[in-house]
Amino acid sequence: MKRIGVLTSGGDSPGMNAAIRAVVRKGIYHDLEVYGIKYGYSGLIAGDIHKMELGSVGDIIHRGGTMLYTARCEEFKTLEGQQKGIEQLKKFGIEGLVVIGGDGSFQGAKKLTEHGFPTIGVPGTIDNDIPGTDFTIGFDTALNTVIDAIDKIRDTATSHERTYVIEVMGRHAGDLALWSGLADGAETILIPEADFDMDQIVSRLNRGQERGKKHSIIMVAEGVGNGFDFGKRISEATNMETRVTVLGHIQRGGSPTGFDRVLASRLGAKAVDLLLAGEAGVTVGIQNNKLVHHDIEEILSQNHQIDLDMYKLSQELSI
Ligand code: F6P
C-alpha cells in the first residue's frame, strides 16, 4: 500500500483533528502518501481530495472541530453514490481509507469494504455510543463541557433555590447525561436505557426540599424526550420554581481534553497500522486501556450498552 485517504463524517467531535494528525503523520512515518478528503462522503463523491504533508496537520492537535470539515451524505447511502466514491479513490490511486466518525459513518465504511475497498473506522462522536470501544473520541471533552455548564447553573440554582432541568445530547445514548449527572451529583438522571417513574422523581425532589436542599438538578438525555416537557411536568407536580436549559451544540465544540487528544492519537495511528497489516472492514477502539479492533459488521449489529451499575450508583448517591 502506497497511498491512503482520511475523512471525517457525521457530527464533528473534539479530538477529530488529533485523529487526522495521527493518520497523516503515522502514514508519512511509514512512507505512505496521505490524502485528506474534505466534507466526508460528499467530498469523496465530488473528488474534494488533497495531498497532506507533515505541515498540513501542524497546530491542530488542540483545536476542536475538524480541519477536513464534515457532512451527513444521503447520496452515499445509495449504490450509485458508493460507486462514485470508489471511482474517485481509484482516480487518486488511493488504496485504503480511514473514516473518522460515528455509526452512520461506519455504515459507509462497511459498504466500501463490501465493494472491495479496504476501510478502517475510527470512533469519533460525543455520544459514546459505538460498541467495541470503552470511549469514543470527543466524549470526554463534551462531558467536561457539560460539567462546566452544570457547575455554573448550580451557582444560580442555589441563589434562587430553583430546580433545573438540563437537557444534554447523546442521540439514543444516555452516557453524557449519566456521566455528567454522576460527576455533578444530580438528583435525577433520565436516560433512554432505563425506565423511570415520574411519581418517584417528584417524591425524591420533595424529600430533598423538606430536608433543606437549596436546589435540584435533573439531567435529561435528549433520547428520553424534550427537557421543556419535563420542566413543565415537574413544576406542575411540585411547588418548585423550575427552569430548563438545553445545552445544545456547545457540547460539540471546544479544545479537546488531554484524554481525547491521546485517545485520538492512539486510535488514528492504530488505523494506519491495521491498513498496512492488510486489515479491512474493522473498527478500532480502546477496551481496558488496550487498543483493539473488531469486525465492522459485528460492531454495527450490536446495540451500545450503557454501564447500568454506574446508573444504579448515581441513584444510590442521590438519595
Ligand atoms: O451524534 C452527535 C450529535 O451531536 C448527537 O448528540 C445529536 O443528536 C446530533 O448529533 C445532532 O445533530 P445535528 O448537529 O445534525 O443537529
Your description of this structure?
The chain has 2 domains: 3-138 and 256-301, Rossmann fold; 139-253, 3-Layer(aba) Sandwich (Rossmann fold), CATH 3.40.50. The chain contains 11 helices and 11 strands. By secondary structure, the protein is α/β, with parallel strands linked by helices. 50% of the residues are buried. It starts with a strand and ends with a helix. A 7-stranded mixed beta sheet has the order 3-2-1-4-5-10-11, with helices on both faces. The protein has helices at 16-29, 40-46, 79-91, 103-114, 139-160, 175-183, 198-210, 227-237, 258-276, 296-301, 308-317, and strands spanning 3-8, 33-37, 49-52, 96-101, 119-123, 163-168, 188-190, 216-221, 242-246, 282-287, 290-295. It is 43% helix and 18% strand. The longest helix is centred in the middle third of the chain and has 22 residues, at 139-160. The model has no long low-confidence stretch (mean pLDDT 97). Residues 11, 102, 125-127, 169-171, 222, 252 line the site of 6-O-phosphono-beta-D-fructofuranose.
Annotation keywords:
alpha/beta; Rossmann fold; 11 helices; 11 strands; binds 6-O-phosphono-beta-D-fructofuranose; monosaccharide binding; cytoplasm
Q: Per CATH, what is the topology of the largest domain?
A: Rossmann fold
Instruction: Provide the helix percentage.
Output: 40-55%
Tell how many strands the DSSP assignment holds: 11
What's the overall geometry?
elongated
- What is the count of DSSP helices, taking H or I runs of 4+ residues? 11
CATH class wording of the largest domain:
Alpha Beta
Structural class: alpha/beta
Distance between the termini: 58 Å
